[in-house]
# Entry
Amino acid sequence: MKLLFFDDFTFGALKGDDRVVDLSAEVADIPQLGPQDVIRGVINNWGTYRSKLEAAVEAADGVPVSSVRLRPPLPKPTNISCMAVNYMEDGTRDAPAQINFFTKSPLAVIGDGDTMVLTDVPATIFEGEAELALVIGKDASQVPESEAMDYIFGYINFVDGSARGLPEGGFTTMKSRDTFAPIGPYLVTADEIDDPQKLGVTLTNNGIVQQKFNTDDMAHLIPRCVEFVTSVHPLEAGDILATGTNHGGLNSFQDGDRITLEVEGLGMLSINVKDDLKRTWGRETRHDMAEKGQEGTTPQISGKYA
# Structure
């Protein structure tokens, strides 16, 4: 199934390619203070809810997806864990980087059609990394690699926003800024994805393809990622584990940009970018810079901090 929230965080599902079905009545018995409680309750009790939700979707006509506002399918997960340097970069790395991850604030989450805001900080560049993210299906601690796939409920598109080069704060100030965790447009349950290790990933900026790679290029595969993260801290149902990106196509995010991310089978996530300071950068990708023999990212051209 493709589970989602829409309008005022009404719980629902996608029917076909373009209809949304309201499933709020089917989950009314879940105790809730907010929408994350609803999706967590569904995930924790999937064996109970699955057939009821599927039947409701089958029986309903739904409404056009164009007539509703899609919201983040995981509005406030307890944890967002992100793998760092987890791709072989199309063979340009001789060996995998040492396995590592960082955490991102759950309050950074936004959804389809929302806006990533570039704040007034002296970043050398703002970027967004195209990623496949896992949705955890049950409490997970010290999970062995051999059992890791049993802990995955589903998958989502994930953009890992970055404000690079800040003078203070390290990964927290670079990665956990407000609006820097776009996800969606919906959560796809694991049974709909045959092999998450063979999915095409495409990110466009204003219609131009910038990142295009496959999840088969991961350095540390999904089961190892789950094992490693849960060896450090527990994960809960509804948490997000983002699996990293191929850095070659990373490009500057600027005011007015329209970004789309499509991981094969997960629909298309679209977001806008806003920068009140109207700063500008070149449009070269990391790969473009490397081909010119230049290290790092394209420099800022104009605006504050240029």
The radius of gyration is 19 Å. The longest helix spans residues 46-59.
